[in-house]
């Protein structure tokens, strides 16, 4: 690919990265997380990101610099603006290593290919520092655009937050997927089964004096899997299991069961997962109309518990 083409790609990438919303507060990656789905891993590992991680952890200056485009220099977007210095990003991570970085844990939020020969990877990371450090754990959000040129992948644009301390205790956050433990598995059945599943759930709820919890989402949705895994946590399950029959409603690619979403007043344009609660007769009691649980990095276990407690029989 010609240098001019690389420059154009960098410009496109830089403009796109500005809209990712990465400069919100970083989130924790719990040490032990239950297996959940990550859309970033549907097509398998992306080895260059692993190579980047190893280069940072080893403090290998040459290896790290070689992962970034230098001619033209990769575009670096920080909270302070854009930087066009090929050494800026390597120096940032090498400084972290010098300051005691010992381990990195990545949580892949998204991986896709915006155009042929390009991979976009967005992740959050936890940096474990040396024992005795003032801040033993630091967190950041990162987005990288990788371009394959002459058989080699290099970063042509990247955006990141600063490494920062944890904004709230780990135990208040929902379980999140990690690079080491993404645990992909389907939770939403065939979309055509939704109506029959709701009928069966209502019959069961009537017999057991429970309510029906409708969970609208898709197997491609990482937040949907995170919420489903949250339902299994003891502090949540003790409210959910005795009081609700759960039905997972598959919305496909926002093109399935739209009639059910309309019937139960779920505005899919607000995102998923989205919940609705029915009484045992099938009457709608409440629906989430504002994307309440759509971003699981912004809610905690107490939010899920509170919702269930509010709408249990």
Taken as a percent bin, the fraction of beta residues is: 15-25%
Shape verdict: elongated
Q: Count of helical segments?
A: 9
Give the overall pLDDT as a whole number. 80
* Number of DSSP-assigned strands: 10
Structural class: alpha+beta
Strand order across the largest sheet: 2-1-6-5-4-3
Q: Specify Rg, calculated over alpha carbons.
A: 22 Å
Distance between the termini: 63 Å
Low-pLDDT sequence parts: 14-44, 168-172, 178-184
Biggest pleated sheet: 6 strands, mixed
Helix content: 25-40%
> Could you give the order of the helices and strands?
HHHEEHEEEEHEHHEHEEH
Which descriptors apply to this entry?
single chain, 313 residues, elongated, 6-stranded mixed beta sheet, 9 helices, 4-stranded mixed beta sheet, alpha+beta
Describe the 3D structure.
- The protein has 313 residues and is an alpha+beta fold.
- The chain contains nine helices and ten strands.
- The chain has helices at 3-17, 47-58, 61-65, 88-98, 194-208, 222-230, 234-243, 258-263, 301-311; strands at 75-78, 81-83, 101-112, 118-129, 137-149, 152-160, 211-217, 244-250, 274-278, 284-287.
- The strands form two sheets. The chain has a six-stranded mixed sheet with strand order 2-1-6-5-4-3, sandwiched between helices. A four-stranded mixed sheet has the order 8-7-9-10.
- The model is unreliable at 14-44, 168-172 and 178-184 (pLDDT under 50).
């Amino acid at each position: 690919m010609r240098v001019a083409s690389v420059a154009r790609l960098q410009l496109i990438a830089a403009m796109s990265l500005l809209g990712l919303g990465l400069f919100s507060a970083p989130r924790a990656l719990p040490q032990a997380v239950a297996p959940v789905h990550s859309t970033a891993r549907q097509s398998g590992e992306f080895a260059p990101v692993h190579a980047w991680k190893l280069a940072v952890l080893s403090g290998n200056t040459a290896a790290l610099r070689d992962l970034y485009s230098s001619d033209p220099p990769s575009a670096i977007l920080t909270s302070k603006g854009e930087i066009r210095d090929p050494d800026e990003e390597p120096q940032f991570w090498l400084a972290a290593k010098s300051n005691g970085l010992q381990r990195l844990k990545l949580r892949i939020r998204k991986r896709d290919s915006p155009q042929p020969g390009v991979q976009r990877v967005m992740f959050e990371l936890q940096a474990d520092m040396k024992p005795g450090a003032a801040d033993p754990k630091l967190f950041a959000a990162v987005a990288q655009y990788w371009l394959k040129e002459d058989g080699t992948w290099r970063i042509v644009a990247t955006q990141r937050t600063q490494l920062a301390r944890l904004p709230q205790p780990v135990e208040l956050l929902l379980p999140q997927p990690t690079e080491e433990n993404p645990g992909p598995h389907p939770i939403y059945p065939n979309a055509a089964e939704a109506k029959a599943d709701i009928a069966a759930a209502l019959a069961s709820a009537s017999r057991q004096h429970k309510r029906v919890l409708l969970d609208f989402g898709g197997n491609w949705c990482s937040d949907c899997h995170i919420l489903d895994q949250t339902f299994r946590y003891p502090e949540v399950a003790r409210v959910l299991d005795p009081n609700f029959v759960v039905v997972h409603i598959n919305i496909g690619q926002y093109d399935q069961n739209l009639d059910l979403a309309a019937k139960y007043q779920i505005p899919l344009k607000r995102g998923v997962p989205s919940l609705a609660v029915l009484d045992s007769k099938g009457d709608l009691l409440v629906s989430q109309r504002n994307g309440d649980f759509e971003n699981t990095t912004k809610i905690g276990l107490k939010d899920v518990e509170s919702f269930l407690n509010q709408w249990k029989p």
